[in-house]
Amino acid sequence: MNETIHNNLYFIRCLLWVSLIAQVQPALAWEKGSCVPPAQRAALVALYNSTNGANWTNNSNWLSADESTWFGVEVTGCDITSIVLIDNNLQGTIPTEIGDLPNLLDLELSYNKLSGSLPPSVTNLQ
What is the pLDDT of residue 28? Predict the structure, then answer.
């Protein structure tokens, strides 16, 4: 009888382990890539392209698969919440796509060589 109880407990532990792995697996998948919505990624790429990103002082990891690793970009949950590229040799204009970052709380682009006016889409920002 003790062997039966032992086997049942082992079976229950195995089921719990499989259940735990099933719950953790989706979380691990997020670590392998980005969950940032495509429109938000496109807005960052537009900023990069319209401000000569290839010649920024620091453009580490920009255009890689995971936006949370891009220099100056902060991702909270799956949303871009901060862009801080102060004194980073940005040259050009701020693209209209910047308004496609609905949860952007911090946009710091001072001490760069930006021209033109702010796009009307900035009113979409928080």
Answer: 39
- 102: its two tokens: 């609905």
Q: Give the residues across from 107 on adjacent strands.
A: 83
* Distances from the Cα of 8 to the Cα of 1, 2, 73, angstroms: 11, 10, 51
What is the distance between the alpha carbons of residues 117 and 107, in angstroms, rounded to a whole number? 15
Closest CA to 102 of 30, 34, 43, 35: 43
CA–centroid distance for 29 within its chain? 14
Q: Which residues does residue 74 pair with via DSSP β-bridges, in sequence order?
A: 82
Provide the pLDDT for residue 124: 73
Mean per-residue pLDDT for 60-87?
Answer: 97
68 Rama sector, left if φ>0, alpha if ψ -120 to 50, beta otherwise: alpha
pLDDT at 15: 43
pTM for the full predicted model: 0.73
Backbone angles phi, psi at 52, to 5 degrees: 60, 50
Measured torsion, CA atoms of residues 45, 49, 54, 58, in degrees rounded to the nearest 10: -60
Picking from 68, 114, 61, the residue whose alpha carbon sits closest to that of residue 87 is 114
